[in-house]
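User: Teach me something about this protein's shape.
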Amino acid sequence: MSRTLIIGSNQPYSGKSATVLGLAKLFRQHHFQIMYGKPIGSCTPGHCPTEGNDEDLTFMITALGLPPDRLPPMVARMDPQTILNHLQQDAPPDLLAPLRSYCQTYQGDVLLLEGPADLQEGFLFHLSLADLAQDLAAAVLLITRFPSPAVVDSLLAAQHALGSRLTGVLFNDVAAEQEEMLRQRVIPFLEGRGMPVFGVLPSDRILRSISVAELVNQLQAQVLCCGDHADEILIETFVIGAMSVNSALKYFRRSEHKAVITGGDRTDIQLAALETGSACLILTGQHSLDPRIQQRAEELEIPILLVEFDTFTTSERIERVFGQVRLQERVKVQCIETLMSANFDFSRFCQHLGLTPSLASARA
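Assistant: First, the predicted structure itself:
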């Protein structure tokens, strides 16, 4: 009988998709046959894909090399119109029926399902993480960040909601200064209460970065030059150029892989940004690009974007994007695969799932 495994989380943007990719590689290394599905479609504010289309799902299909015509069905999308339609139904349909049927007939070893954004999402539709786990008889691996020990509260709440369906926890994006406390105090506490911790993934600058292409999408920016490789250029931080040139030069040199936000009329700051290893230049205001700046940017192959917002609004939007980093670049896939291989106890995890890697290897 195949094993259904839901990758869940106690908070949005914890790293579920990244974990699926890392787990998929580990399962395949041990010759397990896998399939991936996403029961609930994504719909972020201001950017809701059309019906049947989900950017993250499309990326995952490509990254995992899966046949699109054999994927588990997506049963719901958390967009406003779907919610309103559901509220008007006296007898809501059994949305899980097609997915339940798929799970019962799936012939592979492991069916990886990416769970809701948190413990509450999907509750209205009876599609919360606990609902999915119970209805599909699935195990749950819970992904969580570790901003502080206060996260233990939500983990205990998750354990209470999921019961025996909770297989264990994976800590993701753990800062170096937090790791000792996590390993010495928090993990022993959780293990002592029947909550296995299978790994601690350290923070990584690549995974926390965003591509210029993603910035263009999120800011609805116009690419003024050098946009050919926007999906390959990663940005780790951003700075605002609103000071004197001398101050800007000192400030800019402190950061690598940065995007610099400045007014379209500040050619002095723009040139300073280009000459200090910036990854991208974001111009605000409706000003024409100075030909000298464009020529230098093309020589250095640094993209320049133009946005309609003012500098403050632009910086706010970018800050939100950094808090909601998505997995859309191949370099990030390689990074998470490496981190999972080095920091995830796959053998112990398989034992808790009742899987035997050696038998899968022998059968293959």
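Now, about its shape. Confidence is low (pLDDT under 50) at residues 44-52. The chain is about 45% helix and 20% strand. If you'd like, I can walk through any region in more detail.
User: That's plenty for now, thanks!
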